[in-house]
Amino acid sequence: MLLDVKGLKVSYRTIYGRLEAVRSLDFTLDKGESVAIVGESGCGKSTLGHSIVRLLPPNARAEGSVLLDGKDILKMKPAEVRMMRGTDAFMIFQDPLNSLNPVKRVSTQLMEGLALKQRKAGKTFDEKATYKEIVDGLGSVRMPDPEVIMERYPHQLSGGQIQRVVIAMALLMKPKLLIADEPTSALDVTIQAQVIKLINELKKEYGMSVLFITHDMAVAYTVANRFIVMYAGELSETGPVEKVVGSPLHPYTVALVNSIPTKSRAQGDLIAIPGSPPNMLAPPTGCRFHPRCPKVMDVCRTENPGYSQADDRTLRCHLFD
Ligand SMILES: Nc1ncnc2c1ncn2[C@@H]1O[C@H](COP(=O)(O)OP(=O)(O)O)[C@@H](O)[C@H]1O
Ligand code: SF4
Ligand SMILES: [Mg+2]
What does the alpha-carbon distance between residue 138 and residue 122 come to, in Å, rounded to a whole number? Predict the structure, then answer.
């Protein structure tokens, strides 16, 4: 097992009070496994990703444990975090510009990353060889003119070029865990497909474990073996992709699956999920999905369901208690 998240709770201090963005989240990720975290906007997906690479903003508080190869990331000292981030767990952000430092040339940033990796491995830094390695890395993500790109600043690149630079960096760093947070949502459709293809190649070639964060079930389907469906900061259902998509059990997953566009489902037949995600400053009592759930029972309004198992899956729903 590579990643073991236990009782993760993340809250933000806001002017309206504390907002619990992630609550009692438990899940694991095996070596070489690729898991998609899916759920509507605001359900806590990015918060989860940021917790794993310890990049939560100062108003956030994280409790519980996030074990990466047995080491609790939440308990690491700042120097350990710097060593872990990028080399053990690498995150591609939703907004490509957030992934790179705006005041440093691409070459400087990639060199710094690789220098850290080499230091960690106890090797001496060879500038010339590293430069060549980076040019080759950019070439392997099919970046035209890698040497020209190297001398540019992030604002001189397009969103697609930045995402490719970041993926090249992931390829060079070969982290144990790659977290990709909606890596294609800021890109146009043709570039989206290329980025997904590159991530799939990284997975295959290096056996990297991938945590793919997306609100789009159809995109998740193309990268993951397993889904973790989140609703309002909590896990709703997790299991193999074929099971979760083919025979969803949790009423929220059923609704998400019904909203996936398919060839046979004409546009008018798409079933939107009624209502909207809750205000996380005042979430519903009991099961957080109860105001939108077609199967709601009395117990759902007052008691938050715990974890249960059914048909190869872990779920949180009173129907499967
Ligand atoms: N820095 C922050 N300060 C306060 N609240 C935040 C902050 N970042 C995210 N949130 C809130 O936390 C919840 C989860 O957000 P997020 O993790 O970004 O969800 P997702 O990535 O699934 O869209 C949302 O209600 C969001 O408004
Ligand atoms: S616990 Fe109740 S309200 Fe929540 S998803 Fe299950 S049936 Fe619906
Ligand atoms: Mg997000």
Answer: 25
pTM above 0.85, yes or no: yes
Q: How far apart are CA 9 and CA 44, in angstroms?
A: 10
Q: 46 near 94, Cβ under 8 Å?
A: yes
CATH number at residue 254: 3.40.50.300
* 171/19 Cα distance (integer angstroms): 36
* Number of domain units in the chain: 1
CB 35 within 8 A of CB 72: no
- pLDDT digits over 149-205, tens only? 999 999 999 888 898 899 889 889 989 999 999 988 777 777 788 888 888 888 888
pLDDT of residue 186: 72
Residues 6+ apart with CB under 8 A from 166: 92, 93, 96, 99, 100
- What's the gap in Å between 214 CA and the centre of ligand 3? 8
Q: How far is CA 206 from the centre of its chain?
A: 19
pLDDT tens digits along 224-251: 999 999 999 999 999 999 999 999 999 9
Domain range for residue 276? 3-320
Ligand 1 contact, 279 CB (< 6 A): no
Distance 234 CA to ligand 2 centre (A): 13
CB-ligand 1 contact for 42 (6 Å cutoff): yes
